Structures are given as C-alpha cells and as structure tokens.
Amino acid sequence: MALDVIGIIFSYAVTFVLGVLLKIGYGYWTQQRPSNKLFGDVAKDSKCIIVLSSLMLDQKLLQISKNYPFVKGKAKVHWHPSLKFTGEGDSECLSYIYALLNKANIKGIEMLTDDKVPKDDWGTNYICIGGGASNYKSRKLLDVSEPFYKFEVTPQTYGNAIENADGTRKWQPKSDEDFGMIQKLKLNNKTMFLFAGLGPIATAGSGYYLLNNWKNIVKRAGSSEFGILLKFDIVRMEQLPEEIEFTKR
Q: Most buried of 2, 79, 188, 207 (most Cβ within 10 A)?
C-alpha cells in the first residue's frame, strides 16, 4: 500500500516537473522565433496599436479596413484601392506591416488615428506610420525615446530632412531621391516601431523593405533595437530600396 502511494506521488512529481520543463522550453522556443525577436513585446503581448495620421481620414473607412484580407498566400499585398488614408504612402505601408503582423500570428492589432491615442501614453506597444509632420504620435515618440534618426526641426519647418541622432549628418531629398527610416525602439519596457519617409514613396517603401527583408534584419539585430536608413530612386520605381545605414544597440 505504501509503495502504491509512493508510486502515485512519484508519478505526479514527474508529471509536474515535465510540465514545468515543457513550459520553460516552449517559452524559450517562442522567444527564439525570428518573428518574435523582431517584434519583441508586440509578439510577447500579442498586442499593438498601429497609429495613423488623422489628416483627411474617413473614420468609416478605418472600421471597414479592419476586415480587409491583407494576406493572400504569397501574392503581393496591396491596400484595397477604394480605401483612402492620409496618402497612398501611409496606406501602402500599413498593408505591408499588417501582412507581417499576420505572418507573425499577432492577433491583438488595433488601428487608431493620432488624435485618438493619448499623447503621453507609452504603456502599450505602438507602431507609428508617417513622419512627425503628419502623425503627432510619431513626433512624440522621437521626442521621448532615444531614436537612431530624427527629422530636422527648424524655426520655420519640420521634416525637410532626416538627421542622425546627434545631428552631425543629414539626408535631404532630391528630385530623383527620397529617404525613409525604420526604427525599433524600447520605451517603458514596451516595443515601438516607426516607419516614415520624407515623401510618400519612402514611407511606403519602409514597410515594403521590412516585409521583404525582416529575416535578414533579425540575423543582424536579433532582438535588439535598431535603426535603418533607406534611399529610394523616384525615377526608377522598380529599383529596390538601398540601405544606407544599419545601426543597432
């Protein structure tokens, strides 16, 4: 009888230990998944808020967009042509980012405009699309975090050029060139992303670049913060974006 009791206790103990080990192993495996390394707390929490500019945005279309099937196999992803956001660049960028979030199986995706998001709230994971001239949340993110790149600010203008963090280098658009950025930043133990360009082509292209190069980016950055500066050929639109700089910390 005593041996039976000991056997039962031993079986329960083994089951408990195996359960703990499996839980630890599964947690480690999920942390090592490339998509989870890329998205960080966005993947861990399975929640994020995508913030878009409120300029000229039809709120009804924002509701419709939540049900749009962004991912269709391996086909190229585009925003539905009947849906208009601030500009084609922002909406196209959104489609690429949304596709990648779906590939990473991140379910808790919410889309809000910058006027609907608390200005100083950084207690959740945010993905900001568009520069600070049109998206207030993007501007605040660059102000309160430690960005790799920022937009040039003068008494008369905002966002006419992209600068590195200490302002010692600057990139300005030309008639045949546009520049954009992808930044992954940590703030209040949450993960923030910024996709922005000096023009609409670069904003759209930043999302396109991440969608098509995220695995390579993870190989270089792992789960770290990173900043990528991109150059776009406006004349030869079929040419892929050129990576000018890649920085991580």
A: 207
